[in-house]
Amino acid sequence: MSATAKQAATAYPRSSGTMVSVRGVSKVYPGGVEALNDISLDFPRGQLTTLLGPSGCGKTTLLKIIAGLLPATSGEVIVDGMRVDGPGAERAFVFQDFALMPWATVLRNVAFGLELRGTPKTERERVAAHYIDQVGLKGFENKYPHELSGGMRQRVGLARALAVKAEVLLMDEPFSAVDEQTRRKFQEDLLHLVAHEQKTFIFVTHSIEEAVYVSNRIILLSRRPSRVMRIIEPDIPRDVSPDQIRRNAAYLDTVESIWQGLKQYLD
Predict the structure, then answer these.
(1) What is the pLDDT of residues 187-227, one digit of tens each?
(2) In DSSP terms, which residues pair with 22 in a beta bridge?
(3) Which of 16, 45, 67, 251 is the most exposed place for a label (fewest CB within 10 A)?
(4) In a domain, 185, yes or no
């Protein structure tokens, strides 16, 4: 097994329906701050699942534990039948703050993960160019991050995550730093990617409306120490226009139901 994957040797039976399993995960930070308490969840293959909850409830903590960027205090995470013990090639992280290399072009930034894996230059640039096109940045391959808008930089970060062909994409509030119009366009693009890439997306957001709009499933987390409150599967038609989705009674009712469950934490 490669050092890059950093997977423990323990293997588990693979599930045709589940890509990621979180089993009894708790996290206590130094000083005794308990972020997560006995979280158990399954994340289906090929779907987008959103982690939603009050501010500071541990959404990003759980996402980083799944990514292997942060160790759990107890419990375990299984990805495609293997126990997580650090970052792995089957997972890619899309950061809130873009995390681009300022000295590198868009093409080099998108191809960087493949470069680290030793992919030949011609092949990695071909793959990078494909995903640059997929996220709507064709023609910007030779631009540098400082020449791009915030929305465009976030698209570069998404293209980089897609280019490494990871099976699981972990997205930490990726649209929070852009304006509302760009955010809505990103949401529509994300639905397209979920439908066509057949990857497992785990998405963190503070926006109830965004969660309901983009998600196959929503995991509603409680205030810290976080526990699973509810699992919601929005029953929303996806074969209509974005405006029709946002006016749909099921969409509006789901948003209101989640708000009623969360507003108790604002008192």
Answers:
(1) 888 888 888 888 899 999 989 999 999 999 999 998 888 89
(2) 41, 77
(3) 16
(4) yes
Q: Would you say residue 128 lies in a domain? A: yes
Domain that holds residue 83: 7-235
CA separation for the pair 13, 120 (Å, rounded): 34
Q: Is the dihedral of CA 106, 110, 115, 121 positive or negative?
A: negative
Among 102, 195, 181, 201, which Cα is nearest to 143's? 102
Q: Is the residue at 54 inside a domain?
A: yes
Query: In this structure, what are the phi and psi dihedrals at residue 84, rounded to the nearest 5 degrees?
Result: -75, 130
The CATH number that applies at residue 161 is 3.40.50.300
Task: Provide the residue type at 224 as one letter.
Answer: R
Whose CA is closest to 42, among 25, 59, 61? 25
How far apart, in whole angstroms, are the C-alpha atoms of residue 112 and residue 4?
15
In a domain, 240, yes or no: no
Q: Are 156 and 100 in contact (CB under 8 A)?
A: yes
The strand pair at 33-44 and 200-204 is best described as: unpaired
Helix axes 121-134, 106-116, angle to 10 degrees: 130
pTM for the structure as a whole: 0.85
Distance of CA 59 to the CA centre of its chain: 11
Strand partners, 29: 33
Helix (H) or strand (E) holding 78: strand 74-79
Place of tokens 């409150």: 229
Structurally, the chain folds into a number of domains equal to 1
